[in-house]
């Protein structure tokens, strides 16, 4: 959805001309519009706000136009950190819209100031500020009155007169949306947590300020607020406080301060609005997390790992992610107890935890290599090496009763399943040459993994040293994307689909993989993540349209007894009555359940001691 604000690819080449003119194709593709509108943005920043260009230092503004996607219109525009990049929408260069150019260049201004992280509330605020200034520039340039109903339309001139402005517009700052009623709790895999879907809530409040006080004063207030009073993870309430502080610093009248407060009130933005917009019904054990699997593919897809009363949460760092980098750590705690232990190192990523009664093990990634390390059973004590060899990368650790299974990847691409027993001896479970392995699991003396091209299920019995394997049913495009074990069975998820993403859950007795069979319920297409124990089976629903980038409402976690699932019964019930989205369930022993809950506030890891 335009404007994206954050590029998918920063390697777009710079467009140039051999002379000081842009003629012919350059002109028809929007180069003149890009240059003219960039000049207008520069003048606005300089004359209205006293800022010398995007970087505040008079830096050169570059624009790339006529960008296509596989020979077709690229209906998007973005600031990539150094230049503007424009595609087309139905043949119309996006650089024709001053609000488009102003919007994207304002992303550059924000990048050089608060650096608002592009997810959830801070990302929606990032979009809102760009919407505000893009529209402020365009209404001033075209002489559109703030009282005009079309003043809040964004991208309304991109249809080249073929549609009414209201139908052409992509968003409307006059849509009247209220945070407490209209905030959509979108998961991070869709629109970075709804940065566009939710932007007009706070953008509308800012626009109402501009409609009801002097427009130039409003622009200075909003600019001062975004430059001086925000931090990378600021949200809606922070913006209200920032605008109020900026207005007071500019010594505005009491009447104008009242107008500012009323604008935010009218859009439901007040202290604690998130609780009024929707809450979850679990106990929070990890507040405002960036789930590691959301930003680093190929690792565990559960909210937490559980062993008895201990949990471990793998998470990323939002600010590092917003700056184009990464940082990962692990939070370890006990249900109902404090404090928590945070496992993190400045020179390494710690991720993919596994627990048993003696320790927490995890993958450690550093410049020196990739290995398996450990800490105490509740995350306490020093971080110590278990396996970290110079000629291989060790990943996907699983621990049980002091034994450790992991995958060792060598320089030639071989991926061996290794078992480090509790007595210190090491066994190569896959000694044959050319092994490929992933999705490792271990429980009750059984190790299972996806082998070959990902279409084979392998099961290894530790006691006998014997291995079974069988290829999963289905099309060539399918592969095993998750494996979990109970005391006597293997459960696996098959993901694939040629045109439309699909998922299926299968199961087989651990003692005989020839009996693998797809479950009747949950049905194909609807399983995002799952967790299984001897007693219960939990899964999060899959939004097929969400997989294609559209928001179709909250996802849910559903639970049933494992024996009923194996019997083919469809008696799942909701694990939570939360108003937001639930995903990535984890089951512990007994009835303990943990899941990720996305509400208006953020994404939290929450738990309940009993399944509903």
Précis, in short:
The protein is an alpha+beta fold. It has 16 helices and 37 strands.
Task: Provide a descriptive summary of the structure in words.
This protein has 612 residues and is an alpha+beta fold. The strands form eleven sheets. The protein has a four-stranded antiparallel β-sheet, with no helix packed on it. A hairpin with a 5-residue loop joins strand 28 (489-496) and strand 29 (502-509). It is elongated. The model is unreliable at 1-12 (pLDDT under 50).
What's the name of the CATH homologous superfamily of the domain at 25-277? Neutral Protease Domain 2
Oligomer: single chain
CATH class wording of the domain at 25-277? Mainly Alpha
Mean pLDDT: 90
Enumerate how many helices there are, as a single number: 16
Taken as a percent bin, the fraction of beta residues is 25-35%
CATH topology of the domain at 25-277: Neutral Protease, domain 2
Give the terminus-to-terminus CA distance.
38 Å
Which sheet architecture does the biggest sheet show? 4 strands, antiparallel
Approximately how much helix is present in the residues?
A: 10-25%
Radius of gyration over all CA atoms, rounded: 27 Å
The secondary structure category is: alpha+beta
Can you tell me the CATH architecture of the domain at 25-277? Orthogonal Bundle
Task: Name the strands of the widest sheet in spatial order.
Answer: 10-37-36-35
* Number of separate strands: 37
Tertiary shape = elongated
């Amino acid at each position: 959805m335009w404007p994206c604000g954050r590029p998918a690819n920063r390697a777009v080449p710079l467009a140039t001309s051999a002379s000081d003119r842009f003629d012919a194709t350059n002109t028809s593709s929007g180069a003149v519009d890009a240059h003219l509108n960039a000049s207008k943005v520069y003048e606005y920043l300089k004359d209205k706000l006293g800022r010398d260009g995007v970087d505040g230092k008079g830096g050169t503004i570059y624009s790339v136009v006529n960008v296509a996607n596989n020979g077709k219109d690229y209906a998007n525009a973005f600031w990539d950190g150094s230049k503007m990049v424009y595609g087309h929408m139905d043949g119309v260069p996006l650089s024709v819209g001053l609000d488009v150019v102003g919007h994207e260049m304002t992303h550059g201004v924000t990048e050089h100031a608060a650096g608002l992280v592009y997810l959830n509330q801070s990302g929606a605020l990032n979009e809102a500020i760009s919407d505000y200034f893009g529209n402020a520039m365009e209404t001033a340039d075209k002489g559109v009155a703030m009282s005009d109903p079309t003043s809040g339309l964004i991208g309304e001139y991109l249809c080249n007169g073929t549609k009414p402005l209201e139908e052409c517009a992509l968003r409307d700052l006059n849509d009247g949306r209220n945070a407490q009623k209209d905030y959509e709790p979108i998961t991070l895999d869709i629109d970075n947590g709804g940065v566009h879907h939710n932007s007009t809530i706070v953008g509308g409040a800012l626009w109402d300020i501009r409609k009801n006080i002097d427009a130039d004063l409003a622009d200075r207030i909003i600019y001062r607020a975004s430059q001086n009073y925000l931090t990378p993870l600021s949200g809606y309430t922070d913006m209200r406080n920032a605008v109020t502080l900026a207005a007071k610093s500019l010594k505005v009248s009491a009447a104008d301060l009242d107008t500012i407060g009323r604008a935010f009130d009218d859009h439901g933005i007040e202290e604690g609005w998130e609780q009024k917009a929707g809450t979850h019904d679990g106990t929070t054990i990890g507040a405002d997390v960036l789930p590691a699997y959301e930003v680093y593919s190929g690792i565990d897809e559960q909210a937490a790992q559980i062993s008895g009363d201990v949990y471990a949460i793998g998470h990323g760092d939002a600010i590092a992610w917003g700056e184009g980098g990464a940082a990962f750590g692990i939070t370890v705690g006990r249900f109902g107890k404090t404090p928590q232990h945070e496992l993190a190192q400045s020179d390494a990523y710690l991720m993919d935890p596994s627990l048993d009664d003696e320790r927490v093990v995890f993958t450690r990634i550093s410049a020196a290599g990739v290995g398996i390390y450990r800490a105490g059973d509740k995350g306490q004590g020093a971080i110590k090496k278990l396996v970290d060899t110079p000629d291989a990368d060790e990943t996907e650790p699983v621990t049980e009763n002091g034994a450790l299974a992991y995958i060792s990847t060598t320089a030639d691409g071989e991926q061996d399943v290794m078992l480090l027993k509790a007595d210190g001896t090491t066994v190569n479970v896959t000694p044959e040459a050319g092994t490929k392995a992933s999705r490792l699991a271990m429980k009750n003396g059984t190790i299972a993994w996806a082998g070959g091209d990902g279409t084979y299920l392998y099961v290894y019995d530790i006691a006998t040293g014997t291995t079974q394997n069988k290829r999963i049913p289905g099309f060539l495009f399918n592969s095993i994307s998750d494996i979990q074990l109970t005391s006597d069975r293997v459960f696996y998820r098959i993901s694939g689909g040629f045109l439309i993403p699909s998922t299926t859950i299968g199961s087989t007795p651990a003692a005989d993989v020839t009996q693998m069979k797809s479950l009747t319920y949950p049905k194909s297409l609807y399983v995002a993540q799952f967790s299984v124990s001897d007693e219960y089976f939990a899964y999060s629903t899959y939004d097929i349209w969400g997989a294609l980038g559209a928001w179709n409402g909250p996802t849910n976690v559903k639970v049933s007894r494992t024996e009923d699932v194996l019997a083919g019964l469809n008696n799942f019930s909701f694990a939570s009555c939360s108003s937001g989205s639930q995903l990535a369930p984890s089951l512990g022993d007994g009835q303990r359940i943990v899941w990720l809950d996305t509400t208006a506030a953020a994404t939290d890891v929450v738990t309940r001691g009993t399944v509903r």
